[in-house]
Task: inverse folding
């Protein structure tokens, strides 16, 4: 199975039009049609349903598209690794990150690395921590900025600068003007909660806070990203416990208020697979450690 045929298939699956796909590939339509027919014969399955007016993926085609993209991504990464090893100072790093960690000096770390080694391209990919761990274990990600402090045992990590959890509430709420709020007072308040599968560390920390306050939270909504969480709070759908750095989003209609008692950290970490450290990744980790040390000293 030839790589160029896989590329033809992926482009056609995205365009669902032979003419547009051929144009994107800078070839004529007949070679594209021949290549797709050859691929279907090789696989023993129809990948597309064709009519005079439309082209659509078959169930087999849809499944093959997922795997074809993985194969092409793997080849691209292999080429990048070879070039990085050969040249020492060039290549590409795929770095995962959890949404809110973008406000936790990630861009400062990457910006400093780019200044030190401009020949190494850094591509950020937003994804949940669990997906980052899986990709790191299978060699499909170089490093990741994830929530929590305990990655799977096969991985290594360094802590990010700590953030504190605070209460996010609508500016129209009677408590919005207060300077600090005791969680125990909120037993009857509705809460918007982050889905555990998206951020287990944060979810478990927040549930632990409720338990320490001896209250059972009245959770009325679940969300999968912080923008949605804060938007729902701004519309009066409930309160939420969020990392303090989300204040940098400057979202209208919400106020972040510290919780009474000792500060509760929202922890994050830079994670990597020690069995798959390339020269470029080694330099990135060294740069990140220096930048984090500088940030902690401020």
Result:
């Amino acid at each position: 199975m030839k790589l160029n045929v896989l590329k033809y298939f992926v482009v056609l699956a995205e365009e669902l039009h032979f003419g547009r796909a051929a144009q994107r590939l800078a070839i004529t339509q007949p070679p594209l049609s021949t290549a797709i027919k050859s691929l279907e014969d090789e696989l023993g399955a129809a990948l597309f349903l064709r009519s005079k007016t439309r082209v659509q993926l078959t169930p087999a085609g849809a499944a093959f598209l997922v795997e074809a993209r993985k194969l092409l991504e793997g080849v691209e990464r292999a080429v990048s690794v070879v070039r990085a090893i050969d040249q020492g100072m060039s290549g590409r790093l795929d770095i995962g990150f959890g949404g809110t960690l973008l406000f936790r000096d990630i861009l400062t770390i990457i910006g400093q690395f780019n200044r030190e080694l401009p020949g190494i391209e850094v591509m950020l990919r937003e994804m949940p921590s669990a997906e980052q761990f899986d990709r790191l274990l299978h060699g499909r990600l170089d490093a990741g900025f994830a929530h929590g402090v305990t990655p799977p045992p096969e991985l290594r990590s360094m802590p990010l600068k700590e953030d504190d959890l605070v209460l996010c509430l609508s500016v129209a709420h009677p408590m919005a003007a207060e300077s600090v709020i005791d969680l125990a007072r909120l037993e009857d308040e509705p809460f918007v909660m982050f889905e555990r599968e998206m951020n287990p560390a944060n979810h478990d920390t927040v549930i632990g806070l409720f338990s320490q306050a001896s209250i059972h939270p009245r959770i009325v909504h679940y969300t999968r990203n912080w923008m949605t969480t804060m938007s729902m709070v701004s519309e009066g759908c409930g309160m939420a416990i969020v990392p303090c750095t989300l204040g940098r989003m400057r979202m209208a209609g919400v106020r972040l208020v510290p919780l009474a008692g000792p500060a509760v950290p929202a922890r994050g970490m830079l994670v990597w697979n020690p069995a798959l450290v390339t020269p470029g990744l080694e330099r990135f980790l060294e740069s990140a450690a220096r930048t984090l040390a500088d940030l902690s000293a401020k």
Remarks:
- Residues 271 and 290 are 16 Å apart (CA to CA).
- The mean pLDDT is 91.
- The two ends are 55 Å apart (CA to CA).
- DSSP finds nine helices and 13 strands in the chain.
